[in-house]
Amino acid sequence: MSLKRHIPFLRWSFLRVVTGTRSLTTTGQIGDGREAAAVDYVLSHARAGDIDDVLARLDEFAYEQSLLINIGDEKGVLLDAAVQRVNPALALELGTYCGYGALRIARAAPSARIYSVELAEANADNARQIWAHAGVADRITCVVGTIGDGGRTLDALTARHGFAAGALDFLFLDHDKDAYLPDLHSILDRGWLHPGSVVVADNVKLPGAPRYREYMRAQQGTRWDTVEHKTHVEYQSLLPDLVLESTFLG
Ligand SMILES: C[S@@+](CC[C@H](N)C(=O)[O-])C[C@H]1O[C@@H](n2cnc3c(N)ncnc32)[C@H](O)[C@@H]1O
């Protein structure tokens, strides 16, 4: 592994992510056009209809061109394993970005319907192009909005997309880290989860979701059964991260 792959601070595109944090929270993008460049890269380099190749080209772009804030290849293996364990019919991701995470879910659960909620229209457009190129646009739907938007997105998922009591098998939290816990509570309030539903949460150590982690620790063995996976922040091997995999006990 090259030193640049190991040590993120040697990569300008990583440092640009750190300075682009403000842009990220308002626009959902780093602010230097890398997400649109990633779409161009996939459309021109990846074999159409080949999910593996589309994911590999996104990883390649993130390592060699500009860092992307996808769950990435290392943590993606944890996501794949959790999805395969559940084999969901219905899965929901919060935080679409370029569509990488949803694509991994689609690959791991070939018969699942997948919904991904994203606050930024530009990211939804990018992700839809990538999913279409991978040949899974009929199975993954991006809903522009947030779970915290006063019920608009929750109502849309209910009325238009078949979200109902006990229907949601798998939930992937990978959006605003401060929203993990309130959004999980909103979903619990709707009754969509059932005993055996699994919630995977990325970036619990970095940038960090401490209240979410405390909640899962406090509920261990009562409402939730959580495994904490020690791993690394995407696309490098220096900075530690945690992925939480929590099974709902009801
Ligand atoms: C880390 S990226 C998601 C990466 C994606 N899950 C993947 O693995 O490919 C975070 C995304 O969440 C979006 N986001 C931030 N706050 C959000 C919110 N409250 N609801 C939905 N999306 C949000 C951002 O615009 C950004 O696209």
From TrEMBL:
Q: Which GO BP terms, alphabetically?
A: methylation
Concerning Gene3D superfamilies, the annotation shows:
Vaccinia Virus protein VP39
Task: Please give the superkingdom of this protein's source.
Answer: Bacteria
Q: Which Pfam families match?
A: Methyltransf_3
Q: Which UniProt keywords apply?
A: Methyltransferase, S-adenosyl-L-methionine, Transferase
Q: Which GO terms describe its molecular function?
A: O-methyltransferase activity
PANTHER family according to UniProt: CATECHOL O-METHYLTRANSFERASE 1-RELATED
User: What name does this protein carry?
Assistant: O-methyltransferase
Q: Which organism is it from?
A: Mycolicibacter kumamotonensis
